[in-house]
Structures are given as C-alpha cells and as structure tokens.
Amino acid sequence: MIADGFPWLTAIILLPLVASMLIPVLPDKDGKLVRWYALGVAIADFTLMCYAFWKHYDASSATFQLAEKYTWVPQLGFSWAVSVDGISAPLVLLAGLVTTLSMFAAWQVNLKPRLFYFLMLLLYGAQIGVFVAQDLLLFFIMWELELVPVYLLVSIWGGQKRRYAATKFLLYTAAASIFILVAGLAMALYGNNTTFDIVELSAKNYPLALELWLYAGLLIAFGVKLAVFPLHTWLPDAHGEASAPVSMLLAGVLLKMGGYGLIRLNLEMLSDAHVYFAPVLATLGVINIIYGALNSFAQTNMKRRLAYSSISHMGFVLLGIASFTDVGVSGAMLQMLSHGLIAAVLFFLAGVTYDRTHTMAMESMGGIGQIMPKVFALFTAGAMASLALPGMSGFVSELQVFVGITTSDIYSPTFCTVMVFLAAVGVILTPIYLLSMLRQVFYGTGAELSCDIGNSAFENQEDEGTVCFGTDCLLPSEAVYRDAQPREIFIAACFLVLIIGVGIYPKLATQMYDVKTVAVNTQVRQSYIQFAEAKPEIYAKGLFAPQIAQPEVLGIIK
To answer: How far apart are the C-alpha atoms of 363 and 361, rounded to whole Å?
Structure first.
C-alpha cells in the first residue's frame, strides 16, 4: 500500500511536465506514437488525481489538505508549497478532465505533432500548478508558465490571423499578471516576517488603504483572465483563431483561473476590501451578462459567437462572488465548473463541424442536420445546457446565483432588483443567440448555390439524392460531411453525461466545496459587519450602496 505521506500533488504536477521532456527522444516518425504517449500520460495523471482525492480528500473540512512544503529559496521565504481545499480540488479535476479530452480531440493533428503534444503536456502541469499552489510566488510562476504553451498553440496551429490573436492574448495576460507579482511582493514584505505562504499572508493585518490597492490590482489581473468587460477583447480573437482542442482549454480551464484567483485571493484573503468592491463586482457581472449576450448575437463566426457567450456566462461568476450569501458563492463555483464542461463540449463540436465544412461562417452553412444527425443531436444538447435548460448543470448554477443575489441581506432592495432584472435580460437573450446559431448551421438553406455540375440530380434542390452545403453540391456517395465518429461521440458524451448528472443531482459537485465556500462567506460577512459598525455613513441605503444589517440578521454572534 502506498504510504499516506506520498507527495500526491507534486506527482500530479510533475508527471506531465517530466513526461513532456521525453517527447523529443521518442522513436516516432508519423506522430502516432507521440499522440498515444501524450494521451496515456494525460489519462494516468487524471487517474492519479481522482485516486488521491477519493482516498485522501475530506470534503467536510474547510482547511488545506494533502499539503506539501519544501523549502526552495529560504532567503526569500520561497517554498514549493502545494495543497488543495474545496475551492481548488474541483477545479483540478475539471482541468484534468478537459485537458485529457482535448488531447483526444487533437487526434488528427499532423503538423509538428511532437511540439504540439509537448506543449499540451506542459500546459497540463502548469494549469494544475496554478490551482494547487499555496505559495504566492509559486502561483505566479505557474500562472506565467501556462502563457507560453497557449501562445505557441494558437500562433502555430491557429487560423489565418493566429499570430495577431496569440500576440494579443500574450500581451493582455502577461501585462495583467504583473499586478499579481506586485501585489504578492507587497503582501510578502509587509510586516515583520517575509513570506509568500498564502495561509500566513491571510493572517496578516493589512491597512485598509493597502488592501484596497491590492484588491484593485488583483481584480485587473484576474479580470483579464476571466474576460471581464472591458478587459475581454483578447478572448473572441483567441477563440476565433485557435484550433478546437486549444479553444476547449481556453474556455474550459483558463477562464476559470480568473474566477479561482478572485475567490482565493480577493474574496478570502482581502475580505475587508471586498466589502467595498462587492457592488462594483456585481455591476461588472451584469454588464458582462448583457454585453456578452448582445455581442454574441451579432457574430457570424460560430466560435466567436461561443466566445462572447462565455463572456456572458462569466458574469454570473462575478455576481455570485459579490452576493454575500452562501448560496451565491456556491453558485459562482458551480457556474465555473458547469461552464467549463459546457463550453468545452461546444467548442469541441464546433471543431467537429469545421473539420467537415472548413468554415466557421454560419451564413455559409445550413441544412447539415440531415447529413450529420449525430453531430446535430450532440450540438443541440450542448446548446440546451448553455441556455440553462432545467435538468442540466447550467440551470442549477445560474439559479443559485439568482437566489443568492435576490436574498442578499446586505444590499438595498433597489440594488438587488436592478441587478436581478438586468441579469434576467441576459438570460432571455441567451436562448435567442444559441437557437439562432442552431437554425443557421443545421436548419438553414445556406448560401446561394454557385456550383455548376452537369448532373440532373442537382437540377432539383429538393431531390433526395442531392446534398447541398453552402456553395458545394455533392451526391451522398461523394459527400465529405460524414457524421460524428465513435471517438467524437465518446468525447462529447463524457462532457454531456457530467452536465446532465450535475443538473439532476447537483450534490455531485457541490459536496466538494460547500463547506469551504460557507467558511469564506462567513469571513466576508464578518468583515462587513465590522465596517458597518465602524463607518455606518458609507453604507447608507441607495441604489449602489449596501445597507446596514444587524449582526443577528447576518447570523454572526458578537
């Protein structure tokens, strides 16, 4: 039996990183061995994290678990410190699942396969490192490490404007990450002891003025990653040019790093400043919801429409974080997990459609639902999940956020009413642009035919033997628009089973983090009541200001 002291998290991080270094020496000429090797490593790492959490993670505890700490640079107080709790454990599993399936989705990559899978494994380890780092400097290093693989994956295996999109992504995220480094150094150097340990940093008593500046800087850094308006413009470009497997990672994992950072650092460590910034987060959340939905409806490129849909859905994460309620913060966590699954399957299916049609322009598509009924069925299921159909995970997460902000006893009734009404407008817009996309791609008639083929079968557009797609007319025997293959059905099914499972029984996900989110929200509410008592004038009732609540109403015993 493996000893309980085994360094599980270190192994989970280092396995893909070390394995990636062996790819250049593999005896492979056509890339087949490399892809099997990379997929095997990904499956092994995902299996390892599942086993470690099943055996050694206690969901009933709000403390850090599976903790490992090794001194790295003692002069700076820098250590290799990793651990998980209710906030990070579900996101580690999400990253493992999405990355493993994205490698399986990249099965047909034949351009520089060694480099592609090397970067995918490197990105795998860096993603896990971000979610489990307990040392803030280690967190920053892992945050920066994942930028390089994403930049190369977009710039080499992307579309026509791939270099522009990749450079824009790199500039936005690298520039914003400077705020993480500056905030980390400020927190580490404040006080008598220099440390980057997150637990020790949380115990420090920072002046309110410093905490507000730290919160603002981290909000910018994580806001870029979460694609918060107006720091979002890199995301549609990156998605529009990235290949499907990379888009799966961008939407399924990388966006969640921003939400994780907001909960871990802004909400948990800087709870006093959060009291001041919470109305701002709520306002930004509803802006994201409506702005993303309206822009999504205006897109003619399928992947850009899905990208703006992601921006809209991330608004619910902000709204839940700002709610000051247990159910609201829990809803923000569930929204990140739910959207990670839904966005990944939608971008994967968009890639499947592109493999057949060689276009992302929806006006060039139409009527392919009859030719590819399996793709149509899978795409419809993913779209239903994204528009929050009851019985799917998106419905539960958005409902929790709505209940959280509606029942918040911190904000004024006017503020809550405005936020809920505006968020509801975004919810109404969501099915419009998603169903419109399905209609254009699978039901529409496509562009006007311009083919001139000397075959009588094409003279009658309603002939059962005619397959017309965009500007191409082919007989079924000549059609290249084949339906979903077993590998593609398996990948989509892995996501959809979890989406439906969480939608029917949300406790599958919520039981992993509920204890932790309740503890974090209790801490934030404690900070609120202290400020409400000390400076009641700044909490006057109004549209954008919280109201005073008594300790017993907040559930806090003085």
So the answer is: 5
Residue 108 pLDDT class (50, 70, 90 cuts): confident
18-60 tens-digit pLDDT: 999 998 888 877 778 898 999 999 999 999 999 999 988 888 8
- Distances in Å between the Cα of 337 and the Cα atoms of 138, 212, 242 are 24, 29, 22
DSSP lists the bridge partners of residue 197 as: 135
Residue 118 contacts residue 20 (beta carbons within 8 Å): yes
Q: What are the pLDDT digits (tens) for 119-172?
A: 999 999 999 999 999 989 999 999 999 899 999 999 888 877 888 888 999 999
The DSSP H or E segment spanning 382 is helix 373-386
pTM over 0.85: yes
Q: Which residues of 61-88 are buried (b: 16+ CB within 10 A; e: fewer)?
A: ebebbbebeeeeeeeebbbbbbbbbbbb
Closest CA to 498 of 333, 382, 363, 356: 382
Whole-angstrom CA distances from 278 to 174, 433, 543 are 26, 30, 13
Q: What are the tens digits of pLDDT across the range 389-405?
A: 899 998 999 999 999 99
* SS3 call for 505: coil
- Sequence spans of domains, the chain: 1-170+233-255, 276-447+482-545
Print burial letters for 221-242: b (CB count within 10 Å at least 16), e (below 16): bbbbbbbbbebbebbbbbbbbb
